[in-house]
Automatic annotation (TrEMBL):
CC annotations in GO: cytosol
Organism: Halomonas campaniensis
Protein name: PhoH-like ATPase
Lineage top rank: taxon: Bacteria
UniProtKB keywords: ATP-binding, Nucleotide-binding
Length: 466
């Protein structure tokens, strides 16, 4: 066993199979340095062609590396390319290239042995650091151990999380209690009108605050929950949220925690034109959005129609061309839509009116299912537009959809960057992440990352353990 100095700088040399196994592995080593040998880049280049999963993953890794090296100069490449992280210190990426590398005698000149030689030379050049080879290859780990090179298996199989790729839209101060403003050293004045309670704050406003985010003092009911309307370095204006937990509801839907309550507030807020909702499977993104859409279209008549669209990208093999009209072709991709429709239309006895002819006719006249490829050139007025699986859109594609908004239109984007199905996007380059980042400071946009899984204990366990 090779002893690793825990206090020394750590350089993690990644084998090709680690990047293929987890394209987001570059971001999983915290503040330490990640090293990519030139041999690994050559192997990625060999794997990139074709339609197999390994080719798609290789292209995804190449795009991530391209994004990281896009705006850096030669000096930064030599010093280490910053790997951005939302929380904690950023890491560094180093590209390892030796033009005069000597092979390890008596090993043959294979890619694995070349990676081993590159690691050994880096170890000799950096006696001040702990150089560790990370590989999924058992034989390579045995060889490295025989040569006295610290080696580890890659065990961090956690899928890339929404919170890793974009802001959460939430700031909770659980220890503040009733002393929130005292803890933040802010002066506050309260204004009340017929619509809402507003807080005017002055002092040193926290730097992470931005318009359209939730500020709360607890996840529990009864605490302070407000949305940031305006913010600068010395002043901020917050509006108290409506409580949708028990009394008020949206199409019969109640919130279970502060994030869900904030989500319903964003969806029902006339001042918010763009809502982005991230979260893992089963957090209620589509369910709450459809409830708000029905409430504002069928009850309050704020909108004339609901338009539902999503990227028709499968998570496995393509099933080929589909017959029928545009809506019939989109039907296989609309399982989440129909499941939530069925749940929202159930009565107190648990029976659904979705199969009722009159209900279908009413909803058919107000709800439209559209393919995103046919949205270009349209202007959507008086529309509640829902873009599902937004993580599978490129920033350019999402731009073409967002710019369809006309008079009195609200757009809601739903997604989870941990479930990207297109091979050409990563958690950092997908349209969902770009949209959240670009609209961060726009006062008529709001974002929330949901945490609580509502489907079942099995779904919750799957989200935590897989």
């Amino acid at each position: 066993m090779v002893r690793i100095d825990k206090k020394a700088t750590r350089l993690y040399v990644l084998d090709t199979n680690v990047l293929i196994h987890d394209p987001a592995s570059l971001y999983q080593f915290d503040e330490h340095e990640v090293v990519i040998p030139m041999t690994v880049l050559e192997e990625l280049d060999k794997h990139k062609n074709g339609v197999r999963e390994i080719a798609r993953t290789a292209r995804q890794v190449s795009r991530t590396l391209s994004d990281l090296t896009a705006n850096v100069d030669l000096e930064q490449i030599r010093e280490g390319i910053p790997i951005p992280r939302l929380t904690g210190p950023e890491g560094r990426l180093r590209l390892l290239c030796y033009t005069d590398l000597q092979p390890l005698d008596p090993l043959e000149a294979s890619p694995d042995n070349r990676i081993l030689a590159e690691t050994c030379r880096l170890r000799d050049e950096r006696p001040d650091a702990s150089v560790i080879l990370i590989t999924k290859d058992i034989n390579l780990r045995v060889k490295a151990a025989a040569l006295g090179v610290p080696v580890e298996d890659y065990l961090n199989d956690r899928a890339f999380d929404d919170s890793d790729a974009m802001l959460e839209g939430v700031r909770v101060y659980p220890d503040a209690g009733n002393e929130l403003w005292n803890d933040l050293a802010l002066d506050v004045s309260v204004e009340r009108d017929a619509q809402r309670v507003t807080y005017q704050l002055s002092g040193e406003i926290p730097a992470e605050w931005h318009p359209g985010m939730l500020v709360a003092d607890s996840d529990d009911e009864g605490g302070f929950e407000a949305i940031v309307r305006e913010v600068s370095s010395q002043r901020a204006r917050l509006a108290l949220l409506t409580n949708y937990r028990h009394g008020a509801s949206v199409w019969g839907v109640h919130a279970h925690d502060c994030r869900q309550n904030f989500t319903l507030n964003l969806l029902m807020d006339d001042d918010i034109d763009l809502v982005t909702i991230a979260g893992s499977a089963g957090t209620g993104k589509t369910f709450m959005t459809l409830a708000a859409a029905f409430q504002q279209t069928l009850d309050t008549k704020r909108f004339e129609r609901i338009v539902f669209t999503r990227a028709p990208i499968s998570m496995s093999e393509d099933i080929g061309f589909l017959p029928g009209t545009e809506e019939e072709k989109m039907s296989p991709w609309m399982g989440a839509f129909h499941d939530n429709m069925d749940n929202l239309l159930r009565d107190e006895n648990g029976e659904s009116s979705w199969d009722n002819g009159a209900t279908r006719q009413l909803l058919g006249s107000r709800v439209q299912i559209r393919a995103p490829g046919f949205m270009r050139g349209r202007t959507l007025n008086d529309t509640f537009l829902i873009i599902d699986e937004a993580q599978n859109f490129t920033p350019k594609q999402l731009k073409s959809l967002v710019t369809r908004a006309g008079r009195n239109t609200k757009i809601v984007c739903l997604g989870n960057v941990g479930q990207i199905d297109t091979p050409y996007l990563t958690a950092n380059t997908c349209g969902m992440a770009a949209l959240v980042q670009r609209f961060r400071d726009w006062p008529h946009a709001g974002h929330i990352t949901l945490k609580s899984v509502e489907r079942s204990r099995l779904a919750l366990a799957g989200e935590e353990l897989l």
